[in-house]
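Form 12-C: Joint structure prediction
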Amino acid sequence: MRTLALAVALLAGGEALAVTPAEQAQIAQLDRLRAQVADQVHLAAFDLVDELVYGWTADPVFPSETQVVLAGVTVPVGLGTGLQALIENHLAAVLAENPSTHVQLVHCPQCTAVVVHSGPEGTVISRGIDDPEVLERIGGGGGKHALFVDVEAEGAWLVLRARLTRLTPDLPIVWSHTLSTAAGTPALLRQPTHLKSAAEARREYLDALSGRGNSLIPLRFAVRSYAAPPSWYDPPGTPPPPFLWLQSGVELAPTSARAWTASLLAGVSYIPQAYQGLMTQARISRLITGRARSLTRPDLYVFGGIAMMTVWGPGTASFQAPTPNGDDLLTVASPREILGTFHLGADLRLGNRIGISAFLETLPALSQSENLGEYYYGLGISFQSLGSEVTFWF
Amino acid sequence: MRGGERLARGRSTLRPGPFVDQNLRRRWKSQVTLPPHTNTGAPIPTRLPRSPAAALVLSGLALGSGCVTVYQPLSGLQQPVVVDPTAPNLSDVRMAVYCVPGPALSRWETNKLCQRVSTLFEHQGALVTTVEGPAADGEDDALTDDERPVMEAPIALRMELRSRDLYTNNASLSWAISLMTATVLPAVEESAFAVDVVIRDGSGFLLASESLQGRLITRYGVGTWAANRAADTYWRREDQRLFGDISSHDLSEDLYRQLSQLAYNARVQRQVLEARAPAEARP
Amino acid sequence: MNPFALLAAALLAYVRPDPAPGLLMSKERSRQLECAVVTTQAAVERRPGQLAPEGSRGDMADRGAVLCSERLLRAGLRAPRDEAILSTLELRVSELAATAVSVRPDLSDRTWRVEPFHPSAQVSAKIAFATKNALMAHGAAVSDRLVTLAAGDVDVITRMAPDLAYPAACARYAANGSLGEGDALLAVVLRDPLETALHAGVCADGRWSWLR
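Section 2 - Result
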């Protein structure tokens, strides 16, 4: 009856609690932000749960299999209950995968339900877990333990607190622990069947950071385009078509930090009816975003190198010196040219697995060619070619 | 007047360049403007560098290229605050504010800071006395006869303010790069500071303490000036703008809000101690 | 650091995101960061791969680092008072527990109970959980059992001034048997709605005392 009266009172107050559309929009915006944050922190919370369970496997609280009721999981104030369900499920899953913790999660509806007990000392309304004497009378507690887990956002830290309470009348806390992780720390995503301590996980991370060895095999797709000559040339020049290259070889680094790398590649180009070509290329790269490559963010390298290429086919006539005219281009069926080039560029890599780069290239032998313009002139050098590459490392 | 105590010198992580050394080391307090409701928006002029040649070069470059100073709270200064610094939070509380001069605060600057903090608390209803120098252990013994208020009530809160330099950067390389690019790339000078606040009761019992840390970055150059001017004019919201005295206002607001909250917390803590004292006196 | 790396670092200062407000960082986002000035060595240990370590013969210039971590919750998602307390909860409750254990060594053989007094039930639960863990970490015996008051007691005590209410509640806990002879209560109290500090009081044998 009292509950009914309370409910009626709350409903009557509904009018006063009405919100304006602007406030509704604000509330919706806050809810969206909360959902975003919950999304971002749930992996970190999982990590903390993993570490909690790992601690139990390494140093079990109970000497033998013990029944434990998951009495409560609370999440950061302001983040709603969706996160709570995720953490509960993850904790149950990890515990099920790790029987060496000696923690056996059991279901106990009487423990978490609100019970009303009237006696000579008065009427007590509480959760079963908070009143073990009542719980014992209704047959729920019996030798079990209760596990409480709390996750809270404390500034830039996510903190997990856990405690185990014996469900006897005195409710003694038999074990408690507090763990924390910085918000910016990458989630370790350990496997539930192969948990690791935080120290082991860090060592693994550093090992991965130091690389997969000192030599890698790159597979590179490159496109070189050539600047058109100025329009006032007479006769007007004809620039070569863009060249597509497929390259592979070896890339070496003196240390696993890969701050300096050197590569030697061979390449082939084949477009039927247009051109074919072969090339070799040597390049030295320097990491400029740190002294060691990173696993968590892209690495930026600058590089310089040389290449020797030979090309032939109708599309390569523009490389001829002296400059051929239009008739030459039509009549010379298969000119062959050998070119030496120098290039400078930058390479953005992700985890040393994939990368994208761009470079400027100069062809000194063709500096006077009327078929080539320039993309950039600097340091007394005319860069006639602009290249871009996508590379995969194996 | 006691003011001879030297501050522990903050770790200087970089060897300061000739013309940014003293200038930046003292920039933070020049950014502190008057309390919110008395704010004239005019910060104290930044102290010029000691070397005349360096001052000439720096002034020429700064005037020729324009600069933008931004303030970033590092820790403590951006903590949430519940009290309203313009409300009478400290009605009739007798308070002494001790501003300690040292390598990071000259006597003139100490006086300025003390005056402004004093104004802040007076507007909150406190009876404030300012003192240049550290607080003594005994009650009231730091005050001269002139400084002792007419009221005979004991001092309830004694707030001590000290400042430290956390680091000052070596900007000579960025100046070189900036000059090579005709100041399109900016020269960047930065410094970090800490304001240590300790509040005790009249008998010297610690009530509250906090270290408020912030960072000031000044970028010189036409590139940064033009880009930020365009951003302020066309797309930055009013509360996100960087030009003018914004950094001074932001730093002042953060500092005053934190000092107000700390003083209020200390006041409540003192009430708790007063409640404890009679209970402990009982047999 | 070699000259090439120094030059590269100087150039990268223009493209690397700086935590200070600027073209790429809004003031709002910058205020979300908690930063600390640390040594190069500490920065390399805490953020491996993001900063070049010092060379074996030292660097050409002294370097320092500002390490920043973004706060998990943005401003406005929680009430300022709750945020102020929760963002430093571990530090606060550790201090309170340490004070309780060290100031009252006479209660070392008692079982501690914890009772928070804060207007928000959610924040109260957080404070209680953290305080219990902190007491356990200091080697105290702690119980989850709650202390209770009769409805009549609550009615009277809630009308009293704080300086009288807490001692009165403490006396009633002892009188109704809710706090036994082998128990001690650590109350964590927010005394004023405008403050952001937590206070602590101890109730044992029906006598109340403020710790801080």
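Section 3 - Comments
Residues 4 and 146 of chain B are 20 Å apart (CA to CA). Helices of chain B lie at 21-25, 27-30, 52-65, 107-123, 172-180, 222-234, 246-281.
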